[in-house]
Amino acid sequence: MDGDTLYSIGDLARRTGLTVKTIRFYSDRGIVPPADRSPAGYRLYGIDAVARLDLVRTLRDLGLDLPTIRKVVDREVPLAEVAAAHAEALAVQIRTLRLRRAVLTAVARRGSTPEEMDLMHKLAKLSEDERRRLVDDFLDTAFGGLDPGFEGVRRSMTPELPDNPEAEQVEAWVELAELSQDPGFRAGMRRMAEHHAADRAQAELHAADRARTELHAAGRAQDVVTGPRRDAAAMVREQVGPALAAGIDPVSAEADPVVAAVTGRYAQSLGLPDDVDLRRRLLARLEGANDPRRETYLRLLAVINGWPAPESLAPALDWSIQALRARTPG
Question: Is residue 4 in some structural domain?
Fold first, then answer.
């Protein structure tokens, strides 16, 4: 068959696999106009109608509306321009669907109330600027007005949801945003930051006093070395790791040298005596750090930012807290 051959709707249906009804529908809307009519008045189509119908079917499968399809097949607008606009629209829809899926998944998993579901939905729909303000408010509550050295900690606790997040990242963001609004968690994070700031100040005071003593003894100038910047929880994890691995009971006599090493290192870093007051101070720090909501925040943060899952401090903190309580008067 050559280019002058005309086809009936039935012929087109057989060649394209579309139904006669569908082809007539497209023809009525001017997307695939007939080239001529038979003596009996039936529509006849040229060979180009086959190519147009194949293109129309592809564009419909991709979700384009009929007015746009007509402009494409009539070359009123470039296909590349339409494809780019449609791809962006689909990206928006995908983000919206991911948000909805995350909210519904969280609701189903947690057995949320309608009020909680409404809050989660609102958190999921926040813009990038709104998300930033919400996080900044939480971090200001935890670290605002303290040592400038907390800026690094603050940055490390900032979630950065990608432009095209995976469903689990969206779900983690919703849960983290909700957690950051928990008054009890906010207050606990503030206390922990204040404890750490107090320990750093004490350690730096001790280091400065020691440096002044050395300056006086040596009669020469040297830099003042500040105290350790690691918090008590991180220090304890290093000290009690072997005891945990060995299965030592924290209240047993076998744990005595481990506890002595922990409190001795803490006392040395602060320049304070290793006495009951120091052990109470350390116990308060560890109890504050052992809030399970803190670990939940860090776990969610890792999911959102695409980081490796953080190592849990809970086993080391639980062991140390039990050990200190057993050896510290109330």
Answer: no
